[in-house]
Amino acid sequence: MTFTEAEIDPTRFLEDVEMRVGEVVDVEPFPEARKDVYKLDVDFGEETLQSAARLTDVYDPEDLLGAQVVAVVNLGTVTVAGFESECLVTGVDGEDGVVHLTTERDVEPGTRVY
Fold first, then answer.
1. Strand 78-80 with 68-72, pairing
2. Per-residue pLDDT at 1 exceeds 80
3. CB-based burial of residue 114 (10 Å sphere; 0-12 exposed, 13-18 middle, 19+ buried)?
4. What residues make up the domain containing 15?
5. Count of structural domains, the chain
6. What is the pLDDT of residue 83?
7. N or C: which end of the chain has fewer CB within 10 A?
8. DSSP track, 20-50
């Protein structure tokens, strides 16, 4: 395997990118989007943010409801087919589609990822 991105300053990364653990509290289909995504509401403890997440290949809505996800919360808002996506739920390519990143054990919503 070859990594393709240039090395960055780890201190700078932790200053610039804020990732937090959230709990999915609502999942809706999103047929208006060009890609097959869900509309998610993710609870981060003190705040709930929306996300357009491409998790439809692997998960049914009931599989995601209550799940903990790792999300980038400081990218600003991106509008997807009229829907304001306020955080980026992280994932990796799996055999069947995108698999969301989560914690080994449940933690408090809003916990920062380092």
1. unpaired
2. no
3. exposed
4. 10-105
5. 1
6. 97
7. N
8. EEEEEEEEEE-TTSSS--EEEEEE-SS-EEE
Beta bridge partners of 49: 42
Asked whether residue 56 is assigned to any structural domain, the reply reads yes
Q: Which pLDDT does position 103 carry in this prediction?
A: 96
Measured CA to CA in angstroms, residue 71 lies from 4, 52, 89, 112 at distances of 22, 12, 4, 10
Residue 8, pLDDT > 90, answer: no
- As a whole number of angstroms, the distance between CA 68 and CA 102 comes to 6
Q: Would 2 be classed as within a structural domain?
A: no
Is residue 27 a part of any domain in this protein? yes
Alpha helices by DSSP H, listed for 1-114, are 10-16, 61-64
Q: Is residue 16 a part of any domain in this protein?
A: yes
Query: Residue 41 belongs to a domain with what CATH number?
Result: 2.40.50.140
Q: What is the pTM of this model?
A: 0.91
| pLDDT on residue 11 | 81
pLDDT digits 0-9 by tens, 56-107: 999 999 999 999 999 999 999 999 999 999 999 999 999 999 999 999 999 9
Could you give the angle at the alpha carbon of 88 between the alpha carbons of 17 and 33, nearest 5°?
Answer: 150
